[in-house]
Structure formats: structure tokens, C-alpha cells
Amino acid sequence: MKKESIIQQLKDKGLRITNQRLSIIDVLVEKGQLHPGAGLIYKEAKKKCKSLSLSSVYATINEFARYGIIKMLQFDGVENRCEGNLKEHINLICMSCGKIIDYQTLISIDQRDVAKKTGFIITTERLEYYGYCQGCRKDKEKSLTDRKPRNKNS
């Protein structure tokens, strides 16, 4: 995701380039690999644009999603996150820390072919694998090896 590309997309859609939008774009570009939620975007963008409100962040990222500039990843019970990588990929989601890692796939599924064969109208797609990232996996393994064996006689 490049800043210039996002700005051009906004211009192409007739949207104004405001300081608030620019500060949000900067965060999406700089922190995009983290799949930031509105809270992180607000915290970081507020450093550059003091007049920014959390409601403006929500409105802006929803507008960006509506225009196909980003995708919103919606989850039950946790904050929605922004996806700037619009290419086909798998999101690896850590069930411990919530980290999301993009994994580029080598296999591509043609949605038109799926729709033609099934009659299903596809409106969006999202592929996710859930598990534990390297850091959390190491912590889990360490906590298991740090446990002292129980004495059966006590």
C-alpha cells in the first residue's frame, strides 16, 4: 500500500484530500502490516493531526472500505482491523496476541469460475488460518517446559 496510490484513488473518486485523511493514510501505510484497528490509527494519526477525532477515524476507514481502498476485517468480540493488502492471500491470525500476518498464496481461485459453476454470487472473500504466532508459540512451549513435574506421592 503506497500513499501516492491511495491519494490518487481518493482523487479519482472525487474525494477531498484533507489533513485528517492524510494523517490516517500515513498510519495505514506505516502500520499496515499490523492490520491496525481504529484505536491504533487514532492514536498514531492524532500525533500528526491534533484536530482528529475517533469518530472521524471510524468514518474515514469505513469510507475507504466502501470505495475499495482497504478491506475491513470484522471479528466477534475484538476490534475490527484494516486490511491494506488487497491481493489474494491468507491471514494468519494468532489466537493469543491477535497478531495478523499476511501469507501470499501460490494458488489462485478464480471467483468467476466458482460463481459460474455454483450459481453463487460472491460479494467478498477472506481466507484465514487461526493458530499461534512464533512469539506466542515460544511462550506456550516455555511455560510447558518450566512446569515442575508433580510428585505422585504428595
Topology:
Layout: H1 3-12, H2 19-30, H3 38-45, H4 54-66, E1 71-73, E2 81-83, E3 89-94, E4 100-104, H5 111-118, E5 127-131, H6 134-146
Explained architecture:
With 154 residues, the chain is α+β, with helices and mostly antiparallel strands. The chain folds into 2 domains: 1-86, Orthogonal Bundle (Arc Repressor Mutant, subunit A); 87-154, Dna Ligase, domain 1, CATH 3.30.1490. The protein is 42% helix and 14% strand. The protein is built from 6 helices and 5 strands. The protein has helices spanning 3-12, 19-30, 38-45, 54-66, 111-118, 134-146, and strands at residues 71-73, 81-83, 89-94, 100-104, 127-131. It has a 3-stranded mixed β-sheet, with no helix packed on it. The chain has a two-stranded antiparallel sheet with strand order 1-2. A hairpin with a 7-residue loop joins strand 1 and strand 2 (81-83). Helix 3 packs across helix 4. The longest helix is centred in the middle third of the chain and has 13 residues, at 54-66. The chain is flat and about 55 Å long. It starts with a helix and ends in an 8-residue tail after the last helix. The model has no long low-confidence stretch (mean pLDDT 89).
